[in-house]
Amino acid sequence: MGRRLGKVLLALVVAMGAASCHRGARATASRTCVVLSVGGTKGLAHVGALDALAARGIRIDCVVGNSMGAVVGGLYASAPGGDLRQRYRAFFTAYEEETRRTTAARGALGAAVGLLAVLVSGGALGPAVAAGALGAAGGAATVPRLSHERFTHVLERFYAGARVEDLPVPFATFHQVPSEQGLQRVTVTHGLLSSAVAASAANPLLFEDATLARIDPGADRVSATPVHDACQLFPGARLIAINVTGEPAFYRSDLDCDVREVRVEVPSPPVEAFTGRGAAFEALYDAGRDAVRRARLD
Asked: What is the per-residue pLDDT across 204-254, written as a single tens digit (0 to 9) for each?
């Protein structure tokens, strides 16, 4: 009896010690990763959120994002010391110039804004709504063909061959590919940054020239705010999840990561916000910044 009791007590001590070590590993995480959600236009709030993290002196050691989170996350990870707001504006300007070269001059800005709106909507904008957004934003008499290829070309020139594995800050994103078993999620940690971002934002239901080879993962609840995937890639890290989807992030409670979710609650803004200028963009920027300022992240 005494020997059996001793074994039970020893097992309890070992279990308690293991739990204590697990909590200690979380509390003393050696790196902090930012997880950026999908969310369409709302995803521009990620710009303000990242700037607010920097202002709080929080070092970002890795970035994981999908769809609009991949767009903003790629901009940050490729130049963490730069002005993220200006960097986004530079990217949009490059896209606008490409659109002007390939579409009629009239309505060029509307085409650029509308295309980006569809690109990062994650399926929220139907074709009819997207067409209306194009015309309303630019006063175009006709709606240019939505082109994911054009977006990809702009990314290729903007990043000038930058590769994911060589970025100053480790970056990862995801997309889906069809298979006989259904859609399979693909993790991207290597290869061209432009291809990685373009794949995460691809939506074949909305882009006439998109293929089924690579698909935006935003419809997957787990991938909408990829906390679980981020913890698998960076085990033991502290994860700061910036979530603009309007729904709580979906992940297991026993992850080996300390998760701090910052939910940014904003109404769907007009597509003009994609220019990176004006009241609509500034409202999104402020929402992301203020949510991080208020959050308890220590």
From this structure: 765 677 777 888 787 788 899 999 999 999 999 999 999 999 999 999 888
Structure tokens of 157? 């020139």
- Positive or negative, the CA dihedral 36, 37, 38, 42 is negative
- Condensed to tens digits (0 to 9), the pLDDT of residues 118-132 reads 665 554 554 444 444
Which two structure tokens, joined as six digits, stand for 290?
């203020």
pLDDT band at 28; cut points 50, 70, 90: low
Q: Could you write out the three-class secondary structure of the chain? A: CHHHHHHHHHHHHHHHHHHHHHHHHHHCCCCEEEEECCCHHHHHHHHHHHHHHHHCCCCCCEEEECCHHHHHHHHHHHCCCCCHHHHHHHHHHHHHHHHHHHCCCCCHHHHHHHHHHHHCCCCCCCHHHHHHHHHHHHCCCCCCCCCHHHHHHHHHHHHCCCEHHHCCCCEEEEEEEEECCEEEEEEECCCEHHHHHHHHCCCCCCCCCCCCCCECCCCCHHHHCCHHHHHHHCCCCEEEEEECCCCCCCCCCCCCCEEEEEECCCCCCCHHHHHCCHHHHHHHHHHHHHHHHHCCCC
* Half-sphere exposure for 28 (CA within 13 Å, toward CB): 5
